[in-house]
């Protein structure tokens, strides 16, 4: 009758992330708890079963490319500058880069998707001891930029500021991580 059971961990068909099934609503709608701790209601057909932990964070999630010059505006790629051994990732949060289609999503839902993706990438960059993360958020009305910067203001062992205007214009933030040597 139902594809999923309450308590089961599922993935999303058209985006990254995972969620826990809370319960079924009418018309094949499912109430879930996403990986940021927010409850959402999704159509059952947008969710997929996760059969093993290797599907939650696939190693090819973020590709690391060795170059002598960082790539500009590349999605989910990072540059490893070989001369200085400084690792740098870039992430583009424009919604059209995150989802195949965002038709029917409210501005709030779009913002939540962008923030979810940002926080996931931020956590991965920190855990993998990346030195620099460039977040391309765009200019717009500044809501996404403000949310990102409020999040960053609560973090320790980092500094953040506007990314290079020559490389990114006004729509990007650069984050530098300061890792302990242990």
Tell me briefly what this model is:
Helix content is 22%, strand content 32%. It has helices at 95-98, 107-127, 143-153, 165-168, and strands at residues 9-12, 18-24, 29-34, 39-43, 47-49, 63-67, 77-81, 86-92, 132-136, 158-162, 172-177.
Features:
182 residues; single chain; 22% helix; globular; SH3 type barrels; 2 domains; five-stranded antiparallel beta sheet; six-stranded mixed beta sheet; Ribosomal Protein S8, Chain: A, domain 1; alpha+beta
Furnish the topology, listing elements before pairings.
Layout: E1 9-12, E2 18-24, E3 29-34, E4 39-43, E5 47-49, E6 63-67, E7 77-81, E8 86-92, H1 95-98, H2 107-127, E9 132-136, H3 143-153, E10 158-162, H4 165-168, E11 172-177
Parallel strand pairs: 6-7, 8-9
Antiparallel strand pairs: 1-2, 1-5, 2-3, 3-4, 7-8, 9-11, 10-11
Helix pairs in contact: 2-3
